[in-house]
Please model this.
Amino acid sequence: MSRRHDALSARIIQKLGFETYFIGGFPAVGARYGVPDVGLKGFGEIAACVRDIMAACDLPVFVDGDDGYATSRTWCTPCRATSAWASARS
Model:
């Protein structure tokens, strides 16, 4: 599985015939914002990265979501975002 960090690289691997890809936290925020993945960017900024990458490529994707954006009170925010990304691809 290939790791992608932006929309262009996702399109390239689709053209090369890959069947799926992975979006990691550091590659996405590092490429887009030039910062390390140490909590400097919030869910909205990271969600924008993922949304833009997924919009550029039709392949199935695995998204690294280990930053703890969901607590017992806010678990619906990342769930709604991922549902919206999946719906937009249909």
User: Anything to note?
Assistant: The mean pLDDT is 81.
